[in-house]
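@channel sequence for tomorrow's demo:
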Amino acid sequence: MHLFTIVQTILQDLTYTMDNTIKAYDSILDLVGNTPLIKLNKIVEPLAGNFYAKLECFNPGHSAKDRIATYIIEQAEKKGLLKAGSTIIETTSGNTGFSLAMASMVKGYKCILAVSSKSSPDKIDMLRSMGAEVYVCPAHVSADDPRSYYEVAKRVHQDTPGSIYINQYFNALNIEAHYQTTGPEIWEQTGGQITHLIACSGTGGTISGTARFLKEQNPDIKVLAVDAYGSVLKKYHETGEFDHDEIYPYRIEGLGKNLIPKATDFNTIDRYIKVTDAESAHMARKIAHTEGMFVGYTSGAAMQAVMQYHTEGEFTKDSNVVVIFPDHGSRYMSKIYSDEWMENQGFFDAKNAEVPKEIQYVK
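structure tokens (generated this afternoon):
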């Protein structure tokens, strides 16, 4: 028998034994969760301990908010609150809105979003591209101002029959979604060896739900939160006082608050630290340049907090630190990844970085 005939026979036998089942997901929503844990290397070289990034941009909607969007919608469907033709309404800085718009597209719901004007133009364009109706509301007004995105969302909900208001800042399911998913994933991925969790605190669902699960497994795990200058969360955690004097405009999206969200379980958090707009922006760019991870503004804030906690002696050589990177850098192309925007904010200076040559040349 010729060699060609022998090979042909073997290939035919392989074909007959092949599993002909089509291996496909039913929808993009089946890809939510199970995001990778990746060791950080170059950016943490001077630090004591081992550092790992929980890369939430691997969710199909490119952020951690996919978890709460799908979980809350599924719970609403089980309770009969969402039916064909229903409308989903939410307050968002962008990521939750995108996740809700994505899920609404798949499931056939209408989506209306009240968005802070602080959100990047990239995020707002993405929301509209996913079929959402978007109201852009002024960022620097009080939470109870009728123009705030909180109040606009409530008003639209009241005026829209058959709608549900997700209300992520005051929805316990925000915490539950991360308790059911993010916490168990990190525990399994670290083989239970995690010693510290670092995460940004905005609505509080991510850090609270993840921390609650992890502390049930090992109460000695330190949970270190990240807040923004201009936000009330750190002082409230430390004193129980809501201080209006803490509130002033800042640029980081999805981090900090001018109210106290009930979706934050402050009892699960050991410490808060505040980071600046400029240092967080530069740190996000540094993550891209050192680790090859193209992450968002709040990821830069989380990494900046790692550096500050390190300076305060939080870690030892035996520490296993997990840092949650919430979203993808593509949502900030007109902000932190724009040299022009960085220059306009005054973020290129002697302390942080020299002004790029092309900007100097234009001047």
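heads up for whoever presents: The CA atoms of residues 295 and 329 lie 4 Å apart.
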